[in-house]
Amino acid sequence: MSKLFCVGLLSIWFSIMIHAQQDQIQKLPLDSILVWLQENVTKDSNDFQSIALASIDKAYALKDDRLIAEFYAELASWYGYHGLFHQDSTVKYSEKSVEYFEKAKDTILWAKALRTLAIDYVNNAALDKSNLVLFEAVALYEKLGDPLGLANVNRTIAIVASFEENYEVSIEYGKKAYPVFEAEKDYYKMAVTQLNLIQPYRELNRFKEAHQAAKLCIDLVNQHVPEEIYVLGRAYAEKGHVSQVEGNYEQALEEGQKAFDICSSGAGKERSASYLQGVADAQMALGDIHQALENYLFILKHETIDEANSKSTLLYNQVIACYKKLEDYEAVAKYQQVSFNLEKNKLEDVITNLETESFAKYESGKKDQAIEAQQLELRQKTRIQWLSIGIGILLALMLLGVFYNFRQTKKISKALKIKNDENELLLKEIHHRVKNNLEIVSGLLALQSAQVSDPDIQRAMMASQNRVQAMGILHQKLYQGINLGAVEMKDYFINLGEGVLDSFDADQRIKIEFAMDQLELDIDTAVPIGLIVNELLTNSLKYAFPEGQAGKITIKLEEIDQDNLMLEIADNGIGADFVAPSKGTGFGSQLVDLLTKQLRGTITQEVRNGTIVLLKLKKAKAA
Length: 623
Description:
This protein is an alpha+beta fold. Among the domains are: 75 residues, Tetratricopeptide repeat domain (Serine Threonine Protein Phosphatase 5, Tetratricopeptide repeat); 52 residues; 126 residues, no CATH class; 134 residues, Heat Shock Protein 90. The chain contains 23 helices and 7 strands. The strands form 2 sheets. It has a 5-stranded mixed β-sheet, covered by helices on one side. α2 packs antiparallel against α3 and α19 runs antiparallel to α20. It starts with a helix and ends in a 5-residue tail after the last strand.
């Protein structure tokens, strides 16, 4: 008891000390707090986030856009230092920093923040978004007349282009950046620029130029920055990869071994295990299967493999190939299962943290935007239905194949089981891609809206964007959930509400309450209900709370019985009788009426301490 008592006292004392430290820091001037954040951004500090958010509120109160931007930038950096599961927050706050540096008209910091945001987009697999902000940064640096800043952006463009497998563009922008670093005598950036050119040259089968880039990188490091052993090691590894592709396996083995020796001299063999990949690949090509397998297993044992890294799957495939050549089928089955589990976990992690993908080029007229958005939604729904039918047929064929081959050998049986599991991943990937397509449509509408000056068209396009986003969130829930055919509506409404509030910049003054229990609905019922709630939320935010008035909106959805639902949307605004005439097209009201009829329901409206809209709906019947 005495030990527990002492531990309790220590915990209380530690908590008091943490709060005391927070209070002490938050009493400092905002400039001093910013310095503290910059010094602690790499630390796993429990109070960093709360101090940063409180300081942002103070900066808002002072209407100091530059300070707001700097606090957002530090908060984004803090999230960035804490790994994969904070990528969404990193991008969110990085976007905020760009927004407020632009408002502050601080062009230098604005351009720098754009390049940082581009890197955050790359880490979040949003390569097209990264390109957009990079070329915006290019324009700013050209306006500033800053060749070094422009070179840094061009080098980043080259890296992004390489990720996109646009190797000609990667080479073009790498070559643009190099002379500037050369003029500045920045030997490190000269070396890494040449290092980044090796892969594009190799992929384009320009092997001579790839070897030249590798040699130049190696010479620069040896002569000017010898402490950069990892750049040197990577250069030898890339050079070995070029030799491997050329079929010069002896040279690939020699260069891969040199890369491993260089890196292991600085970090040890275990921490440099990944550099054995080139050695093992060359050994396998030369027929030294036992030695190759030993090196592959050494990598698996000692390297910390990031499950979001596709190289880990390739490594397991190489191990499996070795065991096949050695005819050890029990080991083959074991590593196939491990590889499958890794791939599955990797996909789930990427789906969970992936917020947006890329924009595409968009050309469309400004007329009838609301009708065009509705047509896009209908086309998406038709595409989903056809894809679902296709997946159903594919799964049926797979099941027949499993039954037919059930009595075959143990090896074939295991292979079929793995194939069935892969089809479950395929179904999730379908929902993922549908969500990404809807994200693209939403992004295109946002991009076009920014080019339109007519406020009526802008409102119509924002409404269309919200409708597309409502469907996108629903498909995101489908591929994230366990049940691929149903959506948990409360969680869906929470995400939908956050998105609508954010689009109206109303999250600080309007609160949405969800007076409902968890409820799962199939996609045919969830889609129209989601669009109805989106429209009614939008109407409340547009008309119920004029002139920045604060308020509350309540959403309630419950099952009356097995076939019937009750949906209630209530706000405590000024009431429908006092709402000004709509400036829109009335399309939203028509859409709510159409969707209500689709679900064979009725709608009533009542004004009592605000507006209450009550809908009685029937669940969609399975086709």
